[in-house]
Amino acid sequence: MNQLERILRRYARFEQKVQTHMTARLKRFCAPCEGGCCTAVICRESVESPFLIRLREMSQPRVSYRRGEGWQREHGCALVAGRPPVCYEFICDDIERAHPDPLDRYVLKVLCRLVSYTGKRACGMLHAVEISEDCDLLKIQLNNFMQRHEAAEAAFDRVKAYHAGKNLNADDTEALIRIYPLPPSLKRSRAQWRSRTVTDK
After folding, report:
1. CA 5-83-120 angle, 5° bins
2. pTM of the model
């Protein structure tokens, strides 16, 4: 297995894990929604980015891309890997309102940025999905990718534990902050937040 194949396989497995967890958390909002979040315009990146094309080819979606609807079908997106990172990052107003607790909302935002974080600075300052030439995929730095991948995996474990009811300790919060900075509202009360979330070991 060459370096690029290792990167693609790790990214795809991680994307699928994040996708599964997000679907379980947010399906009640997204399934009945008739909003315009998922559009063919967003989907287009998945057929233009060499990195996303490679991921999609590995996962072999059951349906074909359609110009007018992208990958959207009756039961949602047909892609299990190779979705544009923005598909994970976007949180609508309904979801925001359903998470009034600042810490709950922050953990959700970390979850939504894990896939994007993994591909950042893959080739110089370029995100993996921004690489425009197929041959340039071979320039992705394995060490840089692995460091981000491991940080994202660690944060994902903390997010899952938090959603399962576990309080966050100081190490947990540091893992999350690596992915997404604390918003000002939580940063100002970080001492109280930590005392509220630290558990006895």
Report:
1. 65
2. 0.89
Q: Which of 121, 136, 47 is nearest to 84 (CA)?
A: 47
- What integer is the mean pLDDT of 44-49? 93
- In angstroms, the CA 175 to CA 191 distance is 17
User: Is residue 158 classed exposed, middle or buried when 0-12, 13-18 and 19+ CB atoms within 10 A define those classes?
Assistant: buried
Reading the block at residue 61, the tokens are: 């979606």
The token pair at 27 is: 């399906």
pLDDT in tens, 73-83: 877 888 889 99
Name the residue with tokens 């109280």.
192
CA distance 19 to 156: 11
Query: Is 197 buried (19+), middle (13-18) or exposed (0-12) by CB count in 10 A?
Result: middle
CA gap 146, 176 in Å, rounded: 17
Is residue 148's pLDDT more than 80?
A: yes
Contact 96, 114 (CB under 8 A): no
The SS3 assignment for 73 reads strand
Could you tell me where the beta strands, DSSP code E, fall in the chain?
72-73, 76-77
Q: What is the C-alpha to C-alpha distance for residues 65 and 69, in angstroms, rounded to an integer?
A: 8
Residue 66, strand partner residues: 70
